[in-house]
Design brief:
The protein has 199 residues and is an all-alpha fold. It contains nine helices and no strands.
Length: 199
């Protein structure tokens, strides 16, 4: 009996590894193109409006979001509600915590991330990169800290909306990719698209 279970587990593991390591060139192409354009637009805005190495507009958590919204588009964490809501509520939490405890890093940093997780769970907007967005509000450069609640609007909200628009375009360019993947989002997206295109 234990031998059969081991064999079954071994077969399942092999199958999972096989599926995970399949090379789908089309999928890779669209993931690359979407993330390249999305992050490229943000980097371009950064280069125009901010000088030097102090990246204010191009925050690190956008890279993690790109992995989700361009590479794992079926994930619940990748959906528009999670992408936008997760970043925005986390940014609000991060800025608030920084204002309440600006000089106590060992309290502010873990508190910002932990509270961001809880608020995302409560609002059903769980997006893993949101934790980094909250943390950046606490440990970021002086330029980022000086933004205060403007950090929520720009770079966070503005940057996330750029990533979302690019995701809606590039993730729906072929029949094999559908974003958002949730049926309610998908129907709403196609309804709006029909109105705009007139088809």
């Amino acid at each position: 009996m234990p031998t059969q279970k081991l064999k079954r587990s071994y077969r399942k593991t092999r199958y999972i590894l096989y599926k995970e390591t399949l090379i789908d060139y089309k999928e890779h192409f669209w993931s690359f193109l979407g993330s390249f354009v999305g992050i490229g637009i943000l980097a371009y805005i950064q280069s125009i409006h901010f000088s030097g190495n102090d990246a204010v507009y191009l925050i690190g958590s956008f890279g993690a979001s790109s992995v989700l919204v361009y590479g794992i588009i079926q994930s619940p964490f990748s959906q528009p509600r999670n992408l936008v809501g997760g970043h925005v509520v986390s940014a609000l939490v991060g800025v608030t915590v920084h204002k309440l405890a600006p000089d106590i890093l060992w309290i502010a940093a873990p508190l910002a991330v932990s509270l961001a997780i809880i608020v995302m769970q409560i609002t059903k907007t769980l997006h893993p990169p949101g934790g980094a967005t909250a943390l950046i509000a606490v440990i970021g450069s002086e330029k980022i800290k000086a933004l205060g609640y403007m950090y929520v609007l720009s770079p966070v909200l503005a940057g996330v909306l750029i990533l979302l628009v690019v995701a809606l375009i590039f993730n729906n360019m072929t029949s094999g990719r559908t974003y958002p993947s949730h049926s309610t989002y998908h129907k709403r997206y196609h309804r709006i698209r029909k109105r705009l295109v007139g088809k």
